[in-house]
Structures are given as C-alpha cells and as structure tokens.
C-alpha cells in the first residue's frame, strides 16, 4: 500500500526502531527490496535519487515503482531523494510520488526555509510529505560541490518551526557513498539537535555507519536511514561475478535473477539492524 513519511516516521521517532529508505536504481532491485519488506513484514521507503531521475526522467521512475508500492502487502513510501529544483519536485508529485525531499542544504538558512515552505505547501495539498536538510552531509566520491557542514541545533529548530517540512536530514559525521563503515558519529551533537527539534530526524550515508552506532542511532529520534551504497555493492559485485563466470551468457534477466537474492539479503540485514 502506498503511504507517505507522516504515516511512518512519527511513531519511529518516538520508539526504538527506524524505517529503512533504500535508494533503488531499477525495477529489479526495487522489487527485491519490496519482497524483503514483505518477508519481514515491515514498512519500507523506496527512494529515487538524482541519478535515477536524470537517467529515466521523474515520470518514468514514478511509473516504474508505483505499481510495486500500491500492490505491496506492507506500507511503501515512494520518495524522491535529494532534489534541488522545485520544478522536478512538482513533476514528481504530479506523477504520483508520495514524498519528496527538497534539498536546500547548499542555500542560506533563510532561502532554504522559504523554498522548502513553498514545496511543503504544494506537497501537503496533494497528500504528500516533505523532507528537508539542515547542515550538509558530504560525499565520499562525486558531487564535489556539496559542502561539509555539521548541523546547528538552533538552525535545525528554526527550520522545523518555519519550513513546513515533516522531517529533517542532519549532518553529524555521516558521509554519503562510503564503501566501508568508517565514519564517526557525533552523538553529543545529535543529542543537542534532538532536544531542540520536534520533527523526526533522518540520517543519510548509512552504509558508512558501524552497526553498533546504528543501534544507538535507532534509539534516538532518528526515524529514517537512507541506504544506498551497500545495496549497490550487493548487486554490482555479485552481478560482476556471475557475468565473469559465464562469459558466453548475455541476457539481462538471466543475470539479474541470479544477483537479486543478494540484494534482498542485504535489505533484510538492514531491516534487522533497524528493528
């Protein structure tokens, strides 16, 4: 069933579990994630990032994933990840996304609040939810223009009051696209943010976080973890292995059917970490 973040995150923020948000890049991995969610009987968030939108177009991405969400036996939120342009956000909402992230993290606080507010007004009128970001979560590779800025608790509190966002992504030492869990989470900063911000908190860059730190984070007001790199590793590494083992084969579906169980297994591992 299709839901938005407001159906999922407030309860998670008040409890000792979090909801995984998996970045998916095609139908096969999205289906594997939904199958994992159904197997463990947990809600899930399917997220499309900028790479997916640039490659497919936001309308095609919506058409590809909406059927999986609406037909699922568990709640599924279809979420547009980091997006910097309002026109793409509005196209996504029209196409059926139930949630969007307007990323104003590279803007001044005032402009971030003002532009997020406009997005929130439209999204809420359409029954969709909105995520924002305060501070700036850096990337280990790619997106070199993205700054590294720790979240200010005071700025996050003002953003929560004025922007209309339903949840806020924060920067507390987490890093996008790490291939090993090597980042250091500033739990003191997280506690100060949580004390000031009443809306649910979001952590991006989950693949770079140690399991023991995820255990601590899920017991805080962090309600949503964005997960991408470890899923891409499960797909890419196993797909490469099978293709190298059978160089005479070339059918896409043949190889995808072999690799997808590893994607599902990695998704289940993350569900168990966050439960």
Give the CA-based shape: globular
Count every beta strand, where a strand is a DSSP E run of 2 or more residues. 9
Describe the biggest sheet? Answer: 8 strands, parallel, barrel
Rg over alpha carbons: 18 Å
Pairing-aware structural class of the strands and helices?
Answer: alpha/beta
Helices, by number, come to 11
Q: Write down the overall mean pLDDT.
A: 95
Low-confidence stretches: none
InterPro entries: Aldolase_TIM, Class_II_FBP_aldolase, FBA_II
Cofactor: Zn(2+)
GO biological process, one term: carbohydrate metabolic process
Active site: 81
Summarize the SSE layout with pairings:
Elements: E1 2-3, H1 9-13, E2 19-23, H2 27-40, E3 44-48, H3 50-56, H4 58-71, E4 76-83, H5 86-95, E5 99-102, H6 109-125, E6 129-134, H7 153-162, E7 167-170, H8 187-196, E8 201-203, H9 211-218, E9 222-227, H10 229-245, H11 252-274
Parallel strand pairs: 1-4, 2-3, 2-9, 3-4, 4-5, 5-6, 6-7, 7-8, 8-9
Explain what this protein looks like in three dimensions.
- The protein has 275 residues and is α/β, with parallel strands linked by helices.
- It has helices spanning 9-13, 27-40, 50-56, 58-71, 86-95, 109-125, 153-162, 187-196, 211-218, 229-245, 252-274, and strands at 2-3, 19-23, 44-48, 76-83, 99-102, 129-134, 167-170, 201-203, 222-227.
- Helix 2 crosses helix 11 and helix 7 runs parallel beside helix 8 (187-196).
- The two termini are 20 Å apart.
- Helix content is 49%, strand content 16%.
- 46% of the residues are buried.
- It is globular and about 60 Å long.
- Zn(2+) 1 binds at residues 82, 176, 204.
- The active site is at residue 81.
- One of its GO terms (molecular function) is zinc ion binding.
């Amino acid at each position: 069933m299709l839901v938005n973040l407001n159906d999922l995150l407030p309860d998670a923020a008040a409890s000792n579990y979090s909801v995984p948000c998996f970045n998916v890049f095609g139908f096969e991995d999205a289906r594997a994630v939904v199958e994992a969610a159904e197997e463990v009987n947990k809600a899930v968030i399917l997220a499309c990032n900028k790479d997916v939108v640039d490659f497919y177009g936001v309308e095609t991405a919506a058409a590809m994933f909406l059927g999986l969400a609406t037909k699922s036996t568990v709640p599924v939120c279809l979420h547009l990840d980091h997006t910097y342009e309002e026109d793409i956000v509005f196209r996504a909402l029209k196409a059926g996304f139930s949630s969007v992230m307007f990323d104003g993290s590279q803007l001044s606080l005032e402009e971030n609040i003002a532009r997020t507010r406009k997005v929130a007004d439209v999204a809420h009128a359409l029954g969709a939810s909105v995520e924002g970001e305060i501070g700036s979560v850096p990337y280990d590779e790619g997106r070199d223009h993205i700054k590294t800025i720790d979240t200010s608790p005071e700025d996050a509190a003002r953003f929560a009051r004025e922007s209309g966002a339903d949840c806020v992504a924060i920067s507390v030492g987490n890093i996008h696209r790490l291939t090993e869990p090597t980042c250091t989470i500033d739990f003191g900063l997280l506690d100060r943010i949580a004390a000031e911000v009443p809306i649910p908190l979001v952590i991006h860059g989950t693949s770079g976080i140690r399991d023991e730190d995820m255990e601590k984070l899920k017991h805080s007001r962090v309600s949503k973890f964005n997960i991408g790199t470890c899923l891409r590793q499960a797909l890419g590494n196993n797909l490469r292995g099978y293709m190298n083992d059978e160089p005479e084969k070339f059918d896409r579906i043949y190889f995808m059917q072999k690799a997808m169980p590893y994607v599902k297994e990695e998704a289940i591992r993350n569900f168990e970490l966050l439960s």
